[in-house]
Design brief:
110 residues; disordered N terminus
Amino acid sequence: QTQQATPATAADIGADVAALQQALAGVTDAATARASEPALKATASQVDRTLAAVMALPESERKAIAAQAKPSVDKLHEQVTKVLGIPEVADVLKAILDPVMSKLTAMTGG
């Protein structure tokens, strides 16, 4: 018996965004950036799975999810920009954060 994948919802995107925000909240320097890497990488993988599920939905549902998720993605973008502005943090986290933010921004049409 195969298990059906459950359709993605705006709540799934919201949970992923919240997890990214939580992982970034403690980043204040290169050391804390390195400490946040495992959580950020895991969440980035989850974002990929969530977005793949969203893209499998009909366009009307994708648009509705995107509209609901856009405010939280915009807020996350501000947080990412701030964190990457901390000296040496971008060296550690940019390679993780840029792709995930690009995908989230593309999904929300931002």
